[in-house]
Design goal:
six-stranded mixed β-sheet; Arc Repressor Mutant, subunit A
Length: about 300
């Protein structure tokens, strides 16, 4: 059936001209010249096989064929406009967030309820995804990324610096266990010894001789999983303290040394530059930047 449709541009011009009974006013509405409107109508009439307008000086009127066609065309455009508005309303009523898992689990999921209370018209879809969502192609409104904040075509607001230090459950310690020097950490199982954060931390602690090669390799898909293993007493994890303040306060995790390191990266709120003024994105940005203050 598609091949039977005349050019949609010409139909659009016909609908406006039939409504105004004026090529000039139709052109003003559509941002076209009168000559361009006349040309589109001529193309449509050739496709239709009969005149649709009677041209008179300073006035046009519909022919009998034009009178039959105009209501159906107007109704079709109204149906299309309604469908578009409904679809757009559905999209505008949902905020899709793609976040790295640790930030999603340890911070955002615990606070997103206050955003929903403040914006009850928005439904939130939170996806904890270790991969980087393509904000220009996927149906994702905003993301939380880890990096240096220099992504092309992306607006990035720094939330917090990436900081890390070893942490352990007190349940893993026995009487007499203690940490007088960084090398004492090696008395315990190192979770994810291949994590580059370990090398950075030991180097900053002045221990260049420590080698983690050859240790039993355990890999976790997210920092939050390493934290869960540490909380269960399975070893020492290197974690971002800001995400585990409750566990530290309640004594479920111990930070053996005061040394906390950085690697130059940060956690960022990101969204496509072309969508910076979308109301739901603006609302989330304002909420998140205000809420994140308690982590900085």
């Amino acid at each position: 059936m598609r091949h039977r449709l005349p050019p949609l541009a010409a139909i659009r011009v016909f609908e406006a001209a039939a409504r105004h009974l004026s090529f000039t006013r139709a052109g003003e509405e559509l941002g076209m010249t009168q000559a361009a409107v006349s040309y589109q109508i001529k193309l449509l009439e050739e496709r239709f096989g009969a005149p649709l307008f009677i041209r008179r000086p300073r006035q046009v009127t519909l022919t009998e064929s034009g009178h039959r066609l105009a209501p159906a065309v107007s109704e079709a455009f109204e149906t299309l406009a309604t469908a578009f508005d409904d679809a757009r309303g559905a999209v505008e009523g949902v905020l899709s967030i793609s976040s790295i898992p640790t930030f999603a689990a340890q911070w955002l999921a615990q606070r997103i309820g206050s955003f929903q209370i403040a914006h009850p018209h928005l439904a939130v879809r939170l996806y904890a995804d270790p991969t980087t969502a393509d904000l220009s192609r996927q149906e994702i409104d905003v993301g939380i990324r880890s990096g240096h904040g220099n992504w092309p075509g992306i607006v990035a607001h720094k939330l917090i610096d990436v900081r890390f230090t070893p942490m352990i459950s007190p349940d893993l310690l026995k009487d007499g266990d203690g940490f007088s020097k960084p090398e004492d950490l090696l008395k315990f199982r190192i979770l994810s010894p291949g994590d580059p954060w370990w090398k950075v931390w030991f180097a900053a602690a002045g221990v260049s001789s420590v080698s983690l090669e050859g240790l039993q390799e355990t890999k976790f898909g997210a920092q939050s999983l390493e934290a869960a293993a540490a909380l269960a007493g399975n070893g020492i994890a290197i974690l971002t303290p800001a995400f585990y303040q409750t566990d530290i306060t309640l004594g479920r995790l111990i930070q053996p040394f005061d040394l906390v390191c950085e690697d130059g990266r940060g956690y960022w709120l990101v969204y496509a530059e072309s969508r910076r003024n979308v109301p739901k994105i603006r609302a989330f940005r304002e909420w998140l930047l205000n809420e994140i203050a308690d982590l900085t």
